[in-house]
């Protein structure tokens, strides 16, 4: 090989270090810094959980969406169509349209001002949105608040996963980055519990649910003050004073030199042929993740349970149970992702979700039928809840956390901020479309909506099998090697030359 720096061996022209001979340590600073960054998932998760529960509260619907409130009391209305309202879905989906815009702006913000500033900015705008929502007196004020929430989520979702990926040792990068999804799940669970409590508080319960979003926003803001963007001090802090940091510091210096070229990079760079693999994977994974149907179920779990025959109280309890399952499955993923790899979890999770979607469609079709006027028995309700829990578990240890992990791994430093912005923009674009149309789809497709998502799961699992290389344990600066070994992507990437000494 070309030479050695510390104990690392380099490949000429790439500055890659052999990960097998690194001396990496997990220290409290790296744990705490990763927790701080991962906590950005709290605001996203809280919003995912809170919006669906609030939209089942009669006082909220009566005040802002009276047409939906009337349909709930209409015994002749199809079970599937009670919540079909474009204004109601706009309340939910406007956040993701704003997130789309802010995620595209975030690549420039993180490049010029750093990850820390993007996280602080996201926390501040989310806090403003929380105040507007809590104090809302009309639909316009509600949606304006949602837009501010969207800006906050867009900035934090762009900056936090990249920060964690760059901070964590390669050997444990999967587990650390999965922490972001874990905090999302914790946020969803907390929101569902708060919705359950707020449901019984009468006319002001929905304000409590929306207003308590200030708690995770404040946590993110205070935590962001503890992280630093200083590269050299960061290495010493997170790897420990007694660690062999010369190897990694040399890599960091080289990476920073490369990063200077980022200022010369425009957004269109990622569309160049050599970056085609990175674009396809960074954009394809969040695109497919949304087409598992998980976020529409997360948004509307109480609505969905209510629509298929559960009462309001039972619907919120079911949503809490799903949240608990999701949190537990993500914890499982943290232990599996760096042992079994990304591809294995993607594939297993896809198969599990496919079986559950087919099962849900079969039971709903047999009980409610296309008319939606049938009745779900207690036994059928238990099976539906069980299938949804198995579905949530399959998502929780596969497509959930890996959607935020893999795109941060595959892009080189030159295009990493742009690549992450593309990934988050695709995520929010598809989320906006699906949340804006889900209740209408449920009304028109009835139970076959689960077959729709099952079909997409087949496609996305095939995508992983054919086009996704394994990134487990590969240092970020050595990630080019996975493309050069892939049957298709090697046609797009340059081969390195090695020189022995």
Q: What's the arrangement of secondary structure elements?
A:
Layout: E1 4-5, E2 8-9, H1 28-38, H2 41-54, H3 58-64, H4 66-72, H5 86-113, H6 115-134, H7 139-167, H8 173-199, H9 205-211, H10 214-224, H11 231-239, H12 246-259, H13 276-290, H14 294-307, H15 312-340, H16 342-367, H17 378-396, H18 399-410, H19 416-445, H20 449-467, H21 480-484
Antiparallel strand pairs: 1-2
Helix pairs in contact: 1-7, 1-8, 2-7, 2-8, 2-14, 3-4, 5-6, 5-7, 5-19, 6-7, 6-9, 6-10, 7-8, 7-19, 8-9, 8-15, 8-18, 13-18, 13-19, 13-20, 14-15, 15-16, 15-17, 16-17, 16-20
What would you say this structure looks like, in words?
The protein has 501 residues and is mainly alpha-helical. It has 21 helices and 2 strands. The protein has helices spanning 28-38, 41-54, 58-64, 66-72, 86-113, 115-134, 139-167, 173-199, 205-211, 214-224, 231-239, 246-259, 276-290, 294-307, 312-340, 342-367, 378-396, 399-410, 416-445, 449-467, 480-484, and strands spanning 4-5, 8-9. It has a two-stranded antiparallel ribbon with strand order 1-2. A hairpin with a 2-residue loop joins strand 1 and strand 2 (8-9). The radius of gyration is 23 Å and the shape is globular. The N and C termini lie close together (6 Å). The relative contact order is 0.16. Residues 1-21, 230-236 and 496-501 have low confidence and may be disordered. It comes from Papaver nudicaule. It is a multi-pass membrane protein. Keywords: Membrane, Sugar transport, Symport, Transmembrane, Transmembrane helix, Transport. It is found in: Membrane. InterPro entries: MFS_dom, MFS_STP/MST-like_plant, MFS_sugar_transport-like, MFS_trans_sf, STP/PLT_plant, Sugar/inositol_transpt, Sugar_transporter_CS.
């Amino acid at each position: 090989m070309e030479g050695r720096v510390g104990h690392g061996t380099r490949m000429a022209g790439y500055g890659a270090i052999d990960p097998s001979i690194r001396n990496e340590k997990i220290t409290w600073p790296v744990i705490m810094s990763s927790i701080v960054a991962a906590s950005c998932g709290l605001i996203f998760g809280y919003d995912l959980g809170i919006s669906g529960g609030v939209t089942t509260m009669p006082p909220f619907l009566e005040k802002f969406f009276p047409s939906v409130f009337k349909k709930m009391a209409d015994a002749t209305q199809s079970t599937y169509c009670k919540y079909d309202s474009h204004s109601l879905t706009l309340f939910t989906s406007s956040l993701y349209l704003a997130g789309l815009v802010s995620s595209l702006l975030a690549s420039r913000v993180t490049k010029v001002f750093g990850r820390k500033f993007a996280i602080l900015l996201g926390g501040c705008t989310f806090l403003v949105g929380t105040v507007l929502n809590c104090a809302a007196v009309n639909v316009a004020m509600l949606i304006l608040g949602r837009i501010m929430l969207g800006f906050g989520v867009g900035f934090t979702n762009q900056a936090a996963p990249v920060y964690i990926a760059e901070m964590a040792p390669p050997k444990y990068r999967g587990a650390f980055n999965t922490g972001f999804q874990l905090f999302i799940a914790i946020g969803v669970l907390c929101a569902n519990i708060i919705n359950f409590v707020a449901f019984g508080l009468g006319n002001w319960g929905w304000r409590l649910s929306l207003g308590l979003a200030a708690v995770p926003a404040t946590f993110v803001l205070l935590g962001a003050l503890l992280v630093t963007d200083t590269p050299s001090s960061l290495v010493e802090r997170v790897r420990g004073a007694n660690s062999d940091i010369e190897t990694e510091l040399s890599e960091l210096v080289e990476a920073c030199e490369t990063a200077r070229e980022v200022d010369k990079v425009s957004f269109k760079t990622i569309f160049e042929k050599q970056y085609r693999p990175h674009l396809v994977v960074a954009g394809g994974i969040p695109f497919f993740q949304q087409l598992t149907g998980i976020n529409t179920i997360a948004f509307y779990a109480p609505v969905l349970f209510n629509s298929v025959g559960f009462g309001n109280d039972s619907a919120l309890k079911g949503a809490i149970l799903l949240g608990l399952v999701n949190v537990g499955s993500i914890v499982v993923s943290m232990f599996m992702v760096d042992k079994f790899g990304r591809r294995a979890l993607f594939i297993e999770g896809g198969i599990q979700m496919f079986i559950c979607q087919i099962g849900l469609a079969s039971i709903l079709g047999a009980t409610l039928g296309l008319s939606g006027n049938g009745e779900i028995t207690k036994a059928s309700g238990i099976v539906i809840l069980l299938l949804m829990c198995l579905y949530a578990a399959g998502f929780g240890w596969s497509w959930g956390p890996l959607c935020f992990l893999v795109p941060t791994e595959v892009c080189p430093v030159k295009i990493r901020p742009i690549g992450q912005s593309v990934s988050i923009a695709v995520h929010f674009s598809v989320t906006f479309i699906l949340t804006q149309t889900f209740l209408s789809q449920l009304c028109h497709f009835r139970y076959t909506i689960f077959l729709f998502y099952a079909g997409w799961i087949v496609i996305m699992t095939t995508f992983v099998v054919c086009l996704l290389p394994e990134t487990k344990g590969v240092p970020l600066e050595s990630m080019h090697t996975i493309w050069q070994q892939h049957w298709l992507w090697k046609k797009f990437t340059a081969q390195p030359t090695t020189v022995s000494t």
